[in-house]
């Protein structure tokens, strides 16, 4: 998989994002940084869509630290790199909720010292003690959302309502659809369509999902998490399985693209911020987390990146049109059938085996 690195340096002038008004100063970490690390660099490993140049520049200017961001397009790619020893430079990583549990179980994460956090009380109650990480022991929520379809409403007059739409319209969609490059999301969606759990530990059920996907595979252009965006805007695709945050961004660029949460249910996810055990710049890591926790910052990021902030104080600063955007902040009625992806222990190998068979060749 092709990787790209963004090397982002601090700029002389402050960006429009003001942090000094938050009641604290990022620059204060410089005086204490030698206690934990003498590094003047902060390496971040994150999702492509979270590389926010303006935020990185502000942090660099305020702290004097150069920020370098590597990107990945799946949790499994990120975990594999860490386990292979390729993640020792990173002080901040952005895993999804179920991956936090896996990483903690593998002893890859630093337990967060809540005494060093500023603004943890700003979170919505549902994110203050999440099931995937009780009491936010290892992670801080950054963004949350759902998984569903984005489609071209000019090409598909009858909008997709559920996952089975793909099979029912396979000829019409032939080579003009993509699914995510994520085994648990894709297999989970089909499991849900079949009436099972995203987190099934029944190999017969998993095989049924695999068999359904084998039927659909000839119509699938690719398994992709990022590149579909340019393809659907360019007209090569008419439907893509995607995360709600990406769908909101695309719909903003062109309103003919609509987002749908499948009625049989979808995944409810949270992307988080964690500190790996090998973090070389612990002071910088806490400074980064504390910046993200500030209401003004959370609101700015939500608007600029089109993401759903878990920060209640930040949410309250958003314009009403964003607060009322049901793609970003779905009502409870739409979330009833949604399910969080959880680790499945030894069944991970079964999922991976079928996924390899599906995606290879």
TrEMBL record:
Similarity comment text for this entry = Belongs to the bacterial solute-binding protein 1 family.
Q: Which residues form the signal peptide?
A: 1-27
Query: To which species is this protein native?
Result: Nostoc linckia z8
Q: Which SUPFAM superfamilies does the UniProt record give?
A: Periplasmic binding protein-like II (SSF53850)
Q: Where does spermidine bind?
A: 98, 182-185
Name listed for the protein in its UniProt record: Polyamine ABC transporter substrate-binding protein
For this protein's source organism, the top of the classification is: Bacteria, Bacillati, Cyanobacteriota, Cyanophyceae, Nostocales
Please list the GO biological process terms of this entry. Answer: polyamine transport; transmembrane transport
Which keywords describe this protein according to UniProt? Answer: Periplasm, Signal, Transport
Q: Where in the cell is it found?
A: Periplasm
GO terms for molecular function, please? Answer: polyamine binding
Q: Which InterPro entries match?
A: SBP, SBP_1_CS, Sperm_putr-bd, TAT_signal
């Amino acid at each position: 998989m092709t990787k790209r690195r963004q090397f982002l340096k601090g700029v002389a002038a402050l960006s429009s994002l003001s942090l000094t008004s938050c009641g604290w100063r990022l620059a204060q970490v410089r005086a204490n940084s030698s206690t934990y690390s003498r590094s003047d660099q902060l390496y971040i490993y994150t999702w492509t869509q979270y590389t926010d140049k303006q935020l990185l520049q502000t942090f660099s200017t305020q702290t004097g630290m150069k920020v370098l961001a590597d990107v990945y397009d799946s949790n499994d790619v990120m975990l594999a790199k860490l386990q292979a020893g390729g993640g020792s430079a990173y002080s901040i990583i952005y895993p999804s909720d179920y991956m936090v549990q896996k990483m903690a179980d593998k002893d890859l994460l630093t337990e967060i010292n809540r005494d060093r956090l500023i603004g943890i009380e700003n979170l919505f109650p549902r994110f203050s003690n999440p099931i995937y990480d009780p009491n936010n022991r290892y992670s801080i929520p950054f963004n949350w959302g759902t998984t569903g379809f984005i489609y071209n409403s000019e090409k598909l007059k009858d909008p997709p309502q559920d996952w089975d739409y793909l099979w029912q319209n396979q000829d019409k969609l032939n080579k003009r659809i993509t699914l995510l490059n994520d085994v648990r999301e894709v297999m989970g969606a089909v499991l849900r369509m079949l009436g099972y759990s995203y987190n099934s530990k029944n190999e017969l059920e998993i095989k049924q999902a695999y068999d359904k996907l084998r039927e659909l595979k000839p119509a699938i252009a690719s398994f992709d998490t990022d590149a579909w965006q340019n393809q659907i805007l360019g007209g090569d695709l008419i439907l893509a399985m995607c995360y709600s945050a990406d769908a909101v961004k695309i719909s903003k660029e062109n309103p003919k693209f609509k987002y749908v949460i499948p009625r049989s249910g979808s995944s409810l996810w949270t992307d988080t911020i964690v500190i790996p055990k090998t973090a070389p710049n612990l002071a910088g890591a806490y400074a980064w987390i504390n910046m993200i926790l500030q209401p003004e910052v959370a609101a700015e990021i939500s608007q600029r990146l089109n993401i759903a902030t878990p920060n209640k104080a930040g949410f309250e600063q958003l314009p009403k049109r964003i607060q009322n955007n049901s793609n970003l902040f779905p009502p409870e009625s739409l979330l009833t059938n949604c399910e969080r992806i959880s680790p499945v222990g030894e069944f991970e190998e079964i999922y991976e085996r079928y996924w390899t068979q599906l995606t290879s060749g």
